[in-house]
Amino acid sequence: MTQSNPLFPTPFIVDRLQSEEGIEALRSAIAEERARDNEGLKISNLGGWHSNTQMIDWGGAAAKALAYKAMQMADTYTLDVKSPQDSRFGWVPEMWANVSGKGDANQYHTHPGSFWSAVAYIDDGYSGDSDAGLGGQLQVLDPRMPMVRMTAPDLRITDGKGNAQQSEMSIRPATGMIVMFPSWLQHAVRPFHGVGTRISIAINLTPGLKA
Length: 211
Hints:
Blueprint: E1 13-16, H1 20-36, E2 45-46, E3 49-50, H2 55-58, H3 60-76, E4 89-100, E5 105-109, E6 116-123, E7 138-141, E8 168-171, E9 177-182, E10 187-189, E11 198-209
Antiparallel strand pairs: 1-9, 2-5, 3-4, 4-11, 5-10, 6-9, 6-11, 7-8, 7-10
């Protein structure tokens, strides 16, 4: 019997932040930093405010707790194959905040040099409105694209159930959601049209040998 086996899956991990107090502390820290440095950075963001990448320092205890949460998630889904019982590696975190209003977006990009990347949503900005037309979705791109479709863009590989595999996936953020994925995975954010303000925190985790 012919058998199809899915090879080289790409992990996309979803979890929740449990502390409402922690979320509010992060919101306050971001507001204070934005007031101090309203210009911010321009990297992948198309509009909006992008903080410097030292939030682990200015974000207080709540930022350190969030980084620890991300590192725990990474530990769960990472294996040191030469020392599976006691990994020789720890994580070096880098963290920054993004604040988005109407029309703001992020272009497709990756995070070179890191192993895992995470995004935590402090406020999804939707104010309870479930309208998909409000945009702001996190988009992730199949890392095999676009090369495999250049010669026949209307063809799709099936998923084993007769359905066409998708080359781009869309995830609607929610307040308190945290997602994590390999840093090489291309990702973007659709233009945001929510009635509120989108506040998110990005985290890069780079492996480092333990002392």
